[in-house]
Structures are given as structure tokens and as C-alpha cells.
From TrEMBL:
Domain Condensation: 49-357
A Pfam family matched in the record: Condensation
InterPro entries in alphabetical order: CAT-like_dom_sf, Condensation_dom
GO biological process: one example: lipid biosynthetic process
Protein name: Condensation domain-containing protein
Length: 459
């Protein structure tokens, strides 16, 4: 599955149909929002108040061969909603803070949109307007229909999804659709509700104190050095946000990825630790950063019921380890130990720790998104072998940012990197330079099984 911005998406033309939902009943329920959900909604409100453009949704598109059956997709989507209760909720802001509403859907209706000259532009506008977490539904679903095929599109506000959830949409929704067409029931795994995961998260958070070991680990990280930041000059003003730009880079083919993985394993580390090591080496060689300090994405799908559920099952974990004056084996071992610690904190949000310590402000601005790095192994996701033939693609919208985030995605045939950064003249020079060097480091590890660190003065 490739990830691209909506502005770069170029589907085959066709006539558009959409499957639009309305609610028959609506009530405020007592389930809390997760920390990520609450932070996401407050960031959205801050951006709206400041008049900043945003596209806080994730989407996926995929092709279905043959004559498209809108009635079958309508029924499939209705069953999809039944399986994922988070999609039946939205949020409102009242005197008591953010509240969750739960709806009873009245069903979906098929709406003929017709021919659209600028399909990406239309989808961008529909996704921006139709995925509001403060109203229901928080998703947009439809299809670009042609005589012998269709491209299904589905976008949902980030509060109800994550990168892995987006990967799950194709196989499950296609199975539900085919079941309606053939009359043979779909065989799908049982799933839990992300709403229940939010309740569980808040219950665990309520038990946390400043004396809890997990809180101490977060505080030790946050108070022991500067906040995580991109190591090269971006020329951004404090408190200001910039239109985001994106950069993609091929990193490995299948054989190179295996060699990289083997080099990490031979030093007692995994692929994620190798990725963190390459980031640390790049910052050291280009900017003299002697200790890596960053935020890594870690998952919270720690029970079988969450494995196939739609929801935001991730957290950010702190990673810190030295790089200066060390050999590759020592650096990657330190990265693995740091990543293990980050994973142990997967259920502990820094936002909860900040609640316990007045004055600790990890964001600085309600609209800010912290710089993060992610590694996602997509090879074993349901339907992954058919992604290429079905043109399965993840879509993201443009937005505004003040720092750099990076994603490394591993497919069966290739591993690629995507970076998002503020579109300033300095960043347009610094980020490509950084990514070029980072890819060279990753490939050198794959090629030789190690890496000989260069002193920054040599460059």
C-alpha cells in the first residue's frame, strides 16, 4: 500500500456515487475520549479558531473489478458500521468539556453525484467537509464507477483510525461487498470496539501518579534534554505554522530489506531499532547530535480483540540513546533497549503525565503536532498480496506543520520513506539533504551488515 497526498492522486475517470448516512437517534453517552482523540479534537478547534487550513483525515482507495453493485456496497457499509462502533460516535464541546455522542444509524442511501471533471479536487473538498469529528457521520464513502470496474473511496477523521486501521479497510470491506454479491457470508475475525479501548485507557490512566515508574520514565526523558526536533535548520518562527511539503524516497528492495533486518538481528536488534539507529547516525554525521532523542510510534493493539478493530491504537513513546563515539553494534543495541522502553510505555500517554505535573507542556501550542517517526511492516496485513493488483492506496491531506515527521513503510517488494515538513526555503534544502544521507546510511547497513560512523567534521 502506497501513501500519497490527495493532491497527487490521479484515478481513472468515471461517474461518482456516494453512500451517505443519517442518524435516527442521538444521545450523549458516558464513554470518555482517548487522550489522542481529545488532543486531536482540541487541535482541530485551535486550527479553526486561527483560520488555518487542515485535512485531519485518513483515506484509502481500492479497485473492484467487474460491474459495480451500489446496493451491495450499501449493505456492506452498513455491516461495516455494526462491526466498528467507534464510527457510530461523534463529539461535542460543552461546559463539562468534550463529550461522546452515540447514534443509531437510519441506514445509508446511494446518492448519484455524476461526472466530476476534477475528481481529486472533489474528493479533497468532500473529505475535508464530510469527516468532521464534531458531527455524524465522521466518514465519507463512495465509488468512481466505470463500465467494467469501480474505485471505492473511504475517508474518516483521524480520531477513529490510524495507519494500520487504514490498511485493514480493503480486505474487510471487499469481503463484505463480495458476500452481498454472492450470497456467501463473509468469514471475518471478531473485533472489539475502540470505544471500549478508550474506557480502558482512561481507567489505567486514573491509576497513574507521579510516583508511578511509567510516569517517572516519561519525566526523566522530557526533563533530561531538549524536546525532540529535526537536527537541521528549518528556519521556522516559534508559534508559526507553515504549509506542509512531502518527500518520498525508495529505500530497499525485498532482498535489501532482508539484509538490513539480518544485520540488526545479528546485533540483537529488530528492524525498528535499525531504523532509529540510522536516524541517530544521520543526525550525528550531519549536525553533530551526540544523543538521539525522539518520539517513536508504538502500537496499543495488545489484545486479540483489537487486532482487526478500527480505531487509533497507537501512542508515542520516548526513545533516547547515545551515538557519538560508538560502533554500529553498540548504537543499535542502545536503540533496541530504548525502543523496548518506549513499547513498555505504550499505554501511558505523555498527555496524562502532563496532567499530573502542572507546568509541563509537551506541545507548547494546542495546534502543534509533535515530530515523530514511524516504522510499519505492511507485509502480513490482510489482503496485502493483492494491494498492487487492486491499486490500494492510502491518501492523506495537506496541512500545516512546524517540524518534520517521517514514516518508513515496508512492503513485500519494497521499503519506502515518506517525510512531511514545513515548506520553507531552508527546509526545502535541509530535508532532502537529510533524507538522502539517511537512505545512504540505511543502504550501507544493508550492504555491509554494519556501519562505520564518520565524525561530523569529516563531512
Amino acid at each position: 500500500m502506497l501513501m500519497t497526498t490527495i493532491t497527487g492522486y490521479r484515478p481513472e475517470p468515471g461517474r461518482l456515487v456516494e453512500f451517505r448516512a443519517t442518524a435516527a437517534a442521538d444521545r450523549v453517552t458516558g464513554e470518555p475520549l482517548s487522550y489522542l482523540q481529545e488532543n486531536h479534537v482540541r487541535r482541530l478547534l485551535a486550527n479553526r479558531a486561527a483560520g488555518r487550513a487542515q485535512s485531519p483525515w485518513l483515506a484509502t482507495v481500492f479497485d473492484l473489478p467487474g460491474e459495480f453493485r451500489p446496493d451491495a456496497m450499501t449493505a456492506a457499509l452498513e455491516k461495516w458500521l455494526e462491526r466498528h462502533p467507534s464510527l457510530l460516535t461523534y463529539f461535542s464541546l460543552g461546559d463539562g468539556g468534550l463529550r461522546r455522542h452515540t447514534v443509531v444509524p437510519a441506514g445509508l442511501e446511494t446518492v448519484a453525484v455524476g461526472e466530476v471533471a476534477d475528481i481529486p479536487g472533489y474528493l479533497h473538498e468532500r473529505f475535508d467537509e464530510g469527516t468532521d469529528p464534531l458531527s455524524w457521520p465522521p466518514f465519507v464513502a463512495g465509488a468512481i464507477v466505470r463500465e467494467d470496474s469501480a474505485t471505492v473511496y473511504y475517508a474518516v477523521d483521524h480520531s477513529h483510525t490510524d495507519g494500520y486501521s487504514v490498511m485493514l479497510v480493503f480486505a474487510e470491506l471487499r469481503a463484505l461487498y463480495e458476500a452481498e454479491v454472492t450470497g456467501i457470508p463473509a468469514v471475518l475475525p471478531e473485533v472489539g470496539s475502540y470505544v471500549d479501548a478508550c474506557v480502558q485507557e482512561r481507567a489505567l490512566a486514573a491509576e497513574l501518579t507521579l510516583e508511578s515508574p511509567e510516569a517517572r520514565q516519561w519525566l526523566d526523558f522530557w526533563l533530561s534534554g531538549p524536546p525532540p526536533a529535526f537536527p537541521l535548520e528549518l528556519d521556522v518562527e516559534p508559534g508559526r505554522f507553515y504549509s506542509s511539503a512531502a518527500l518520498d524516497a525508495d529505500v530497499f528492495d525485498a532482498a535489501e530489506a532482508e539484509r538490513f533486518s539480518r544485520a540488526c538481528k545479528e546485533n540483537g536488534a529488530g528492524f525498528s531499532a535499525g531504523w532509529l539507529t540510522a536516524l541517530a547516525i544521520t543526525a550525528y554525521e550531519l549536525a553533530g547530535v551526540e544523543q538521539h532523542r525522539g518520539l517513536a510510534v508504538v502500537h496499543t493493539r495488545d489484545e486479540p480483540r483489537w487486532q482487526s478493530a478500527q480505531g487509533w491504537f497507537i501512542n508515542l513513546g520516548p526513545v533516547a540513546f547515545p551515538v557519538a563515539g560508538r560502533e554500529f553494534g553498540s548504537v543499535v543495541a542502545g536503540a533496541q533497549a530504548a525502543f523496548d522502553r518506549a513499547q513498555s510505555l505504550a499505554r501511558v500517554s505523555l498527555l496524562r503525565v502532563a496532567e499530573l505535573l502542572p507546568g509541563l507542556d509537551p506541545q507548547g501550542d494546542a495546534a502543534a503536532v509533535p515530530p515523530m517517526v514511524s516504522y510499519l511492516d505492511m507485509r502480513h496485513a490482510p489482503g496485502a498480496r493483492e494491494w498492487a493488483s487492486s491499486n490500494v492506496t492510502a491518501l492523506v491531506g495537506p496541512g500545516q506543520t512546524a517540524d518534520v515527521s517521517m514514516w518508513l513503510n515496508r512492503l513485500a517488494e519494497r521499503t519506502y520513506l515518506k517525510a512531511q515538513y514545513p515548506d520553507t526555503p531552508a527546509a526545502r534544502t535541509a530535508v532532502p539533504r537529510y533524507v538522502t544521507h539517511l537512505v545512504e546510511v540505511l543502504r550501507e547497513i544493508a550492504r555491509t551488515g554494519g556501519y562505520r560512523l564518520k565524525h561530523p567534521a569529516w563531512l
